[in-house]
Design brief:
Blueprint lengths: L6 H15 L9 E4 L3 E5 L9 E5 L3 H18 L4 E4 L7 H7 L3 E12 L12 E5 L5 H11 L8 H9 L9 E7 L2 E10 L6 E9 L8 H15 L4 E5 L5 H6 L3 E10 L1
Parallel strand pairs: 3-4, 9-10
Antiparallel strand pairs: 1-2, 2-3, 4-11, 5-10, 5-11, 6-7, 7-8, 8-9
């Protein structure tokens, strides 16, 4: 694996990331802009990962204008927003955002793995991994939402978006659910790339707190990797958290870039 993405693969990564991150904005009533200049989504769910600007190719003056518009859209819906500086973002975007009063909230390493011939993970007794159908979508949604800090009483919010933007089989998104003795415990998702499908993105890798420390994150990530390889992809990418980064490194992922998230 090279130390950085080529310009072509950086474009493919950003396209995949934007397709996933703006997917909730397909719900009627959401604010969605997809253009050559920028991609923006503002929805009614108060979750930073799904609100804001996800890709941009703007001059400094236009950055200031779009930033101001985005703040107003978010204020009207009372949701947090971010502006992602991705591998293809022009370098002048960062000082333009800082001049407009935005600051860095966090950085996400972009990690990638070449797909070679490898045997699927051996599962120990009591562990199963399934690609979900519509019948299990609610269980998958709960694992992802709760693992990322959503209180149980608010799980229906993101779960309703998962239903409304496309049930399993209705979109290209593939979702995987790991059970321990029948109990949903970990999850992942795979979004195949566009065009030739060379690159695929892995998202929503999540393990419930009670089940952490058992290697379940690696197993459910491996399920997504195997599905990508079986579908003909040659490279998988993901955006790592600090908790997940060591897991992905053990699976053979290398850091090849980053996404910097600015907030106002």
């Amino acid at each position: 694996m090279t130390a950085s993405l080529s310009p072509k693969l950086a474009e493919a990564h950003d396209a995949n990331y934007v397709e996933f991150s703006t997917s909730y904005a397909r719900r009627p009533g959401s604010e969605l802009t997809r253009s050559r200049s920028f991609d923006r989504a503002v929805i009614d769910l108060p979750a930073l990962p799904y609100n804001g600007v996800f890709r941009s190719n703007l001059g400094p003056n236009d950055v200031a204008r779009v930033a101001a518009e985005t703040v107003e859209l978010a204020r009207a819906r009372r949701v947090p927003i971010g502006w992602r500086v991705t591998p293809t973002t022009p370098p002048e975007t960062t000082p333009a955002l800082e001049k407009a009063g935005w600051h860095v909230d966090h950085l996400m390493p972009v990690m990638a793995k070449d797909l070679d011939i490898a045997a699927p993970a051996t599962l120990r007794a009591g562990i199963t991994v399934e690609e979900i159908t519509a019948a299990a979508l609610a269980e998958w949604s709960r694992v992802v939402a709760v693992s990322f800090g959503c209180p149980e009483e608010y799980v229906e919010g993101p779960a309703s978006y998962d239903r409304d933007v496309g049930l399993p089989g209705e979109t290209s998104m593939r979702r995987f659910l790991l059970r321990v003795d029948g109990e949903p415990s970990a999850a992942s998702a795979l979004l195949p790339g566009q065009d030739d499908g060379y690159l695929a993105g892995i998202y929503c890798v999540a393990t419930l707190a009670r089940a952490r420390g058992q290697g379940l994150g690696s197993i459910v990530t491996r399920a997504a990797i195997d599905a990508a390889q079986a579908a003909g992809s040659r490279l998988v990418v993901l955006q790592a958290s600090e908790m997940g980064r060591p897991v992905y490194e053990r699976l053979g992922f290398d850091t090849v870039g980053s996404i910097t998230v600015f907030i106002p």
